[in-house]
Amino acid sequence: MNPLGIFLTVLVFFVFNRVYKKKGEKFYLNPVLFSIVAIIFILYFAGVEYETYNESAQIISFFLGPGVVSLAIPLYKRRKKIVEYWFEISVGVVVGGLTAVLSAFFIAYFLGGSESLLISISPKSVTTAVAISLSEQIGGIPSLTAILVIITGILGNSLGVVMLNVFRVKDPVARGLAMGVSSHVLGTSRIMEEDKTSGAVSGLGMALNGIFTSFILYYIIQLIMSI
To answer: What Cα–Cα distance (Å) separates residue 204 from each residue in 147, 150, 222?
Structure first.
């Protein structure tokens, strides 16, 4: 197996993560964002096809699944807290899920986005696999949806904690729920660094939002399009 993708991905992220840690974890030095941009430039100037890189980095993608499943561990450890706040979490998922869909749709609409863009951007706050499937079902462009999901995750990873601090959201349950519902895995991984309870709630919020959005997205889009 060609080790190019694994070596390049790990090396680039290691370098930018070291810079991020060394500079005091400034949000504008987010290692995920800089790693993606750096790899794009490296592949472009080296003349390496994306397919070649992607094929050699498949093992990293494979570990994404176990990584997501492992979020169940902090969730289990803090199950009493989750049960205590079950109502707040349920309401947060419903309100947050609807807000994520409607805000994305109408912002794109008022900026003059095409119908295909409006549909494709709607599931941008759920994980990539779920978002792509939903995009196909409602007539969107799956590849465009995947890009928008990644951008959403990067923004959440980079700016989510900063925004929570700006608006003085201090409760760990509220912080975790906001990150998980709005920016899925990348947001969850970021808030997990801040607080384990927030990370556990974020993982739960991410999962519940994926399920909730799967049930309601088609009907919401049909309703909006018919108005």
So the answer is: 23, 19, 28
CA dihedral of 60, 62, 66, 67, whole degrees rounded to 10:
30
User: Within its chain, how far is the Cα of 143 from the centroid?
Assistant: 16
Amino acid making up residue 68? V
Please choose, from the candidates 129, 196, 185, the residue with its C-alpha nearest in 3D space to the C-alpha of residue 157.
185
Rounded to an integer, what distance in angstroms lies between the CA atom of residue 191 and that of residue 56?
A: 30
> For the chain, what is the radius of gyration of the CA atoms?
18
Question: What does the alpha-carbon distance between residue 122 and residue 138 come to, in Å, rounded to a whole number?
Answer: 10
pLDDT above 90 covers what percent of the chain?
65
* DSSP one-letter string for 13-69: HHHHHHHHHHTT--GGG-HHHHHHHHHHHHHHHHT--HHHHHHHTHHHHHTHHHHHH
Average the pLDDT over 14-31 and give the result. 90
**What's phi and psi for 23, nearest 5 deg?**
-95, 15
pTM (2 d.p.): 0.84
**In this structure, what DSSP letter does residue 140 have?**
-
pLDDT in tens, 186-209: 899 899 988 989 999 999 999 999
Who's near 181: CB < 8 A, 6+ residues apart?
92, 93, 96, 97, 100, 125, 205, 206, 209
pLDDT, tens digit (0-9, with 9 covering 90-100), for 77-95: 888 989 999 999 999 999 9
168: left (phi over 0), alpha (psi -120 to 50) or beta: left
